Amino acid sequence: MANRTWAAADQGTSSSPSWTTATCRRRRAWLAEHAGRALVVLRADSHETQLWAAACGCGLALLPRFRAEAEPALRRIATPAPVPPAEVWLGVHGENRRLSRVRTVLDCIAEAVRSRAAMLNPSEPAGGAAHAAASRESGGR
Length: 141
Known about the structure:
With 141 residues, the chain is α+β, with helices and mostly antiparallel strands.
């Protein structure tokens, strides 16, 4: 994986909330360990940007499996080790979370995520994890 091109997640700065979570730190560490010498041709903190970059042949990307599998231009590739799972957070101001209208929305979102658990966190097929995605045409260069 180290000799492939990557459309990688942006490491951001300390003021970037998307890179302050433990999930993001674990994924950055995974990339550093398994693809540390790879040529990174794009850094973006948007999975959609990474998805379309990979689909257009820019390189490999670590993507949410449910989203990548819905894109016919991408294919899953084997990874040398399982990619750390992502967490889903739902934030709301403490003073508002007990308001009935806010609580209703929060409960609805939480139920939607729970009801889609199998899609969001599918079990791995026999043969191991493969969470990186590459363009079907480029093969991830």
